[in-house]
Design a protein that fits this description.
The complex is a heteropentamer, with 2 copies of chain A, 1 copy of chain B and 2 copies of chain C. Chain A is of the alpha+beta class. Chain A has helices at residues 36-44, 92-97, 110-117, 132-145, 162-179, 190-196, 214-219, 224-227, 336-342, 356-360; strands at residues 2-10, 13-21, 25-30, 51-56, 59-63, 68-69, 77-80, 150-154, 183-186, 199-204, 207-213, 233-240, 249-254, 257-262, 271-277, 282-284, 295-307, 310-317, 329-335, 349-354. Chain B has a 6-stranded mixed β-sheet. Classes of the chains: A alpha+beta, B alpha/beta, C mainly alpha. The structure holds adenosine-5'-triphosphate (2 copies) and magnesium ion (2 copies). One adenosine-5'-triphosphate (ATP) sits between chains D (10-11, 13, 30, 32-38, 82) and A (129-134).
Chain lengths: 363, 230, 232, 363, 232
């Protein structure tokens, strides 16, 4: 449970933010300069807000009204800075273990983290000559190894290549799910946010534009302005309903029908979240046949919003009544020409075609 | 004209008074540079714009005479001084005779004096103690300072029970007392010679003469100097 | 102001100020150049320069004073030459006091500036290079502004030292009232005579007040510059 | 024309790189620590390589054999550093105009660049308080405004949000096409690379794994290891064959048939490049009907490479003979189950379904 | 070594070394603490401390010497107390010379260290805070290692100054051969007698060699540390 309420003025910028999150990963999302780092700094105690209250897991870290302001070192936050901020005089190993001295026992295993981040070969080097991505990886490791009660991650993966990101993301998921460390996560990548976040806080110009559970916020077409039209997309909750077959695919049940995904390690019965970028959904009136895409969801057109040559179509899954599909919907971004050609209108039955491999990245 | 005088630092009080008088009378202006005699002599050798040199000891004046930096015929002995032993305000008089047990008086403490090989007062002091036959006993207890005033300070601050200074230095410091005067024959006479430098302005001779007027003599005497050639 | 001072003491205060300011100002460009060389160039030449710069600190001031006298005195090997060809004389002039003060405070100034230069991130200088700036321009537009706090620190240290400089000055230019008698020389002269303590204490007080005022002022400037660079 | 040949050793890392590029944008692509920044630094003259030769547009910037090493300030490179490196003591405006003094007249217009980067409100501020993205934008502006003969950009957009990236990318395209400044571009985003690059140089562990025209390199399934399986995809050259219709779509001709795209400003007859991520391609044996996707390319299966549960299928466009389609191919990443279900094998005729909106970002 | 020196001169060299090393070592922790306070804390208290620290630079050394005498002398207000309660006496002892040298070189040391502290990026200290390190630990593990070059610079400056210190030392502890006769005192004494120049020059040479050796050594150490931090 994270509770943040802040009010702070810089010359030319006013932050006025309040949100609560139930734990898990809380993603701060917003344009450059919208105040994300400022919020994180205030939570870390590096910025003393003009007014504000920060409570994490019942611990009051700051409350200006009550005159409480815990110093940074007693907040137990592991902070991955936007600029790595490694200690230049310490080796990579010493950087990584710096927080160990103060950390309560337990926490991540050193070798495991080193392995995951691929910094094993760098351990005896000093940060001076590290590449941008290497620095960032060490910074992530340093924060993880301090066994924090709250992880603050400010664009931790921005400097990394895709394969490396793909390795680190599942680790963060484990952290979220197994060790249950709450994470405040700043990112410009909607894929990351959709994958990790429990709660999304959209910031715009120092204010909260929207906040709430990730599925809700992202399914709202209004969030597209912050998110960027090309990144918009809904998040779908599904249930694992089997174990991987010999071809590696696992069946997932959704209100719109079954989906097949590879690389699923979750147990049957477990709930998963899939992000379905609106731009990757193809619609068809008839049930499509003979396609390589395995995932076809049935539903009805909920709403159509035109945007230039394109239109954003909401498809309510599982029937006319939104309640039937658990209120779940996906978004499809198609051309207006197609809207006309297919004769789409609210209430029309449609099939949404989604590529299985396109989904795999967005669990 | 402007006359520049290089004078031993200990003369400041007396010379300042005499100079003020003289300036009022003659219309000449006087600039007096007070420093240790050794340094002044070296500066004169290096071409300092001094017209008159008043040294606190004869050796530096001899040196300048040798190198031709002063007008030998203008040299005269201006002042004399006594060498005294001072102690704290409540110190008892000491009779400075041959074999005086200064070392015993000092106990574990120090005798403050100028550098015994370079500061004139220190050199005179060493000479005096030697001729009294006690130098070897006293030497380990000697604390040397870079000028005689600092030695006096050590006594007045209570750091050293005794010190060897000029009679002129002991004047006017309430926290020290002269406890004995070294016999005149125990050391070379303390003489402050005066001379015009090689490059002296013509007006300078008049000020040298003025140093011997009764008013000047009174001023020197008020500071505890002995005026020679009276 | 200064009414309660004798004219001579007043002259000493003013002269000390003049000498200290000049010494600081005159040596500043040299100090910056030399500090830059020592900080950013390698090689034994700069090591040697570094050593020479420190000499006035190591040597007793009297020795420095004598060396100055032997060098810049009217009969000194440089002084003679300056006198003959340009009619410039330092010995026993206030300008000589400036030289003495500058030489004595030079190591302090160089050290401070050098530390500041070493703290400048060479990556910023490299960035300026990619934008087309040559070495000199990089120095003037990047390095120099960034070391302003260090320069101020060095200058004030030098100024304070110059205000207190005594041994080398009195040895080189003697102690001639209104001409070369600086505050410390005047204090020295008073300390040499019976009853001079009060007058000396008064001059000490002035000296402290002047130097501390300069110090506080410089701190304020340096802080403002630093804050400006930090961007708040 | 850029010609780079470098050989340099750090303790524990050896760079041994040689490539030539015909101008335009040369993308350096590779994992974190593969040597990208090192190459860029050597080109900028910030690193003096043990051995090497750098020639840009006929100017020899460095040639260790000939003893040539032009100092940085005479190379006229505009360098956007991975770490912004703004001058902390100068205002944003002064930072931006720093290079002006030395730059030959001409070059970008100040107001235009400021506008594009959205830094107008920051001009009188100092970098100290800027956000990460703001810093990076100023750094981009500073390099652009120095009117360079060669632009070096080291992950210039990594710290920026999608909408901002979407604004800056077209500007870089203009720079490439109109002002014809060669650009050496480091990025972890294949979308950016595919969009901008003329030439791609794939680095792996300090060596060139592959280099050449972007279409060639990216169509090579072997590049997937560096690129990451999810990012792999081919680049297709097409010709504009009409002006935008009233629904905003423009017809493009490809060897596999016509494609419809929105947002095309190019003139009829002009050649364009489209990136088609393998993961976004759906295959069908029969010609699909009634889909919202407008873009269906016909071709034959060229090769199938299995990778775990998935397979990478190359589709040669325009017939059996690769020569017929101008040798062009696209990649599709589908499940092995689909390969079996559709009975795909080399030579089989297939239709590739690609969403029009998914293409728009990859021109 | 030193065979060509009189035993007395040899003693002076060794004493000077001992005094300078001690003065540097003893004042270092205080200098670091005070420099840190001045650099990182605001408020008039630290401004005042800053001023006081600079006093020995501003005042003529003789004055500092007298003030030391009045403070740490046997009858001085601190000295008296130290004597009574701990039996510690500085007057006429080499330890007194250490105090004089330490006080005189203190401002130089503080300035150098302070500049170094101001050059440390507070963001790094903040980062250490997020990892759980309290202020003291942050200082010890981040700030302190990063200012090592500054500390070396300050220490060597102080050492050099201590080697050359004369005025305050001789005033405070006078000149007692083998006990408080440092190199500068010996040099001074030689310079005061006609014909002493050669002997003085010899001692000057020793003093220069010793101090420059220390200087060069410190430079090497500082460079190594700096390179280590730069990570190459
Ligand atoms: N000065 C140096 N000393 C030692 N090793 C260095 C030095 N500079 C770079 N390296 C090493 O060389 C390798 C390549 O570094 P480089 O910065 O070129 O990587 P990069 O491809 O830019 O990576 P990234 O995407 O993470 O920025 C890295 O492993 C790095 O640690
Ligand atoms: N110390 C400061 N003084 C003045 N303005 C500041 C200061 N710190 C931040 N700001 C301003 O506050 C705004 C928010 O900054 P912040 O760093 O929180 O942005 P951000 O959302 O993290 O952006 P980015 O994605 O670019 O990192 C920016 O416009 C920034 O310029
Ligand atoms: Mg930020
Ligand atoms: Mg890099």
């Amino acid at each position: 449970m994270i509770e943040v309420a802040l009010s702070h003025r810089f010359a030319g910028f006013a932050l006025e933010v309040a949100f609560t999150a139930p734990g898990g990963v809380t993603a701060l999302f917003g344009h450059s300069g919208s105040g994300k780092t400022t919020v994180v700094n205030a939570v870390a105690g590096l910025l003393r807000p003009d007014r504000g209250r920060v409570v994490v897991g019942g611990r009051v870290l700051a409350d200006t009204d009550a005159g409480v302001f815990l110093p940074t070192h007693r907040r137990r936050v592991g902070y991955v800075f936007q600029d790595a901020r490694l200690f230049p005089h310490l080796t990579v190993r010493q950087n990584l273990t710096y927080g160990r001295f103060f950390a309560p026992k337990g926490g991540e295993d050193f070798d495991r983290v080193v392995d995951l981040l691929g910094v094993g070969a760098l351990l005896s080097r000093r940060p001076g000559g590290l590449s941008g991505g290497e620095k960032q990886r060490v910074a992530i490791g340093r924060a993880l190894l301090s066994n924090p009660a709250l992880l603050l991650m400010d664009e931790p993966l921005a400097a990394l290549d895709e394969p490396r990101k793909a390795e680190i993301l599942p680790f963060l998921e484990t952290l979220r799910d197994v060790t249950r460390v709450p994470i405040l996560y700043v990112s410009h990548s909607l894929a990351e946010v959709a994958r990790l976040a429990t709660t999304v806080v959209l910031l715009r110009g120092g204010q909260v534009a929207q906040s709430g559970p990730v599925a809700e916020v992202l399914a709202d077409p209004a969030s597209a302005a912050v998110v960027g039209p090309r990144e918009a997309g809904a998040v779908l909750s599904v249930t694992v309903s089997g174990t991987p077959g010999e071809d590696g695919l696992t069946r997932l049940d959704s209100p719109g029908g079954p989906l097949w995904l590879s690389g699923i390690t979750a147990m049957p019965g477990q709930a998963l979240r899939l992000r379905i970028p609106a731009s990757e959904v193809i619609l068809s009136r008839a049930a499509p046949q003979g396609l390589s895409a395995l995932n076809i969801l049935a539903g009805r057109v909920g709403a159509i919003e035109a945007e230039g040559a394109d239109a954003m179509v909401r498809i309510d899954l599982g029937g006319v009544d939104p309640g039937q599909g658990g209120g779940q919907a996906i978004l499809a971004r198609i051309t207006r020409r197609s809207v006309a050609a297919l004769g789409l209108e609210p209430g029309a039955e449609v099939h949404a075609i989604v590529k299985s491999v396109a989904l795999a990245g967005h669990i | 004209a402007e006359i520049t005088v290089f004078a031993a630092a200990s003369l400041k009080n007396a010379l300042d008074a005499i100079a003020a008088d003289y300036q009022a009378k003659s219309g000449d202006t006087l600039a007096i540079s007070y420093e240790s005699s050794g340094k002044l002599a070296k500066q004169i050798q290096e071409g300092a714009p001094a017209d008159i040199f008043i040294s606190a000891a004869t050796d530096w004046m001899d040196k300048l005479a040798e190198t031709g930096d002063i007008q030998a015929d203008s040299r005269s002995d201006l002042l004399g001084n006594d060498l005294v032993l001072v102690g704290g305000a409540d110190a008892a008089p000491v009779d400075l005779v041959k074999g005086v047990d200064l070392a015993g008086l000092l106990g574990d403490e120090k005798l403050a004096m100028g550098l015994v090989d370079s500061v004139p007062a220190g050199m005179y002091g060493k000479e005096a103690l030697t001729s009294l036959g006690v130098w070897d006993a006293v030497f380990p207890k000697v604390a040397q300072t870079d000028n005689v005033r600092a030695a006096l300070k050590l006594v007045s601050a209570g750091e050293a029970p005794y010190g060897i200074v000029y009679a002129s230095d002991a004047v006017s410091d309430a926290s020290v007392k002269v406890v004995g005067t070294f016999p005149a024959d125990s050391h070379e006479p303390i003489i402050y010679p005066v001379a015009l430098t090689k490059s002296a302005k013509p007006e300078a001779a008049a000020f040298v003469a003025a140093l011997k007027t009764p008013e000047a003599v009174a001023a020197f005497k008020a500071q505890g100097f002995e005026v020679l050639g009276q | 102001m200064f009414d309660w001072l004798t004219p001579e003491a007043r002259a000493a205060v003013l002269l000390s100020l003049k000498v200290s300011v000049w010494a600081t100002v005159v040596s500043l460009p040299f100090a910056i150049a030399i500090a830059h060389g020592i900080a950013r160039r390698a090689g034994w030449v700069w090591q040697a320069v570094n050593g020479i710069v420190h000499l006035p600190l190591i040597l007793p001031p009297v020795v420095t004073g004598y060396l100055l006298l032997l060098t810049f005195g009217r009969k000194g090997w440089i002084g003679q030459w300056l006198d003959q060809w340009f009619g410039i004389v330092f010995a026993f002039k206030w300008t000589g006091a400036v030289i003495a003060a500058a030489v004595m405070s030079f190591p302090l100034m160089v050290r401070a500036i050098r530390l500041a230069i070493e703290a400048v991130d060479p990556k910023l200088e490299a960035a300026a290079g990619t934008l087309g700036a040559n070495r000199l321009w990089v120095f003037g537009t990047v390095t120099l502004p960034l070391i302003v706090p260090g320069i101020i620190a060095g200058a004030i240290l030098a100024f304070a030292k110059a205000m207190g400089e005594f041994g080398a000055t009195i040895t080189f230019v003697s102690n001639i009232p209104n001409q070369t008698q600086t505050l410390p020389s005047a204090i020295y002269a008073f300390l040499q005579v019976p009853g001079g303590d009060v007058a000396a204490a008064r001059l000490v007080a002035i000296s402290v007040v002047v130097a501390l005022t300069a110090l506080v002022a410089s701190e304020l400037v340096a802080r403002r510059v630093a804050r400006l660079i930090a961007g708040n």
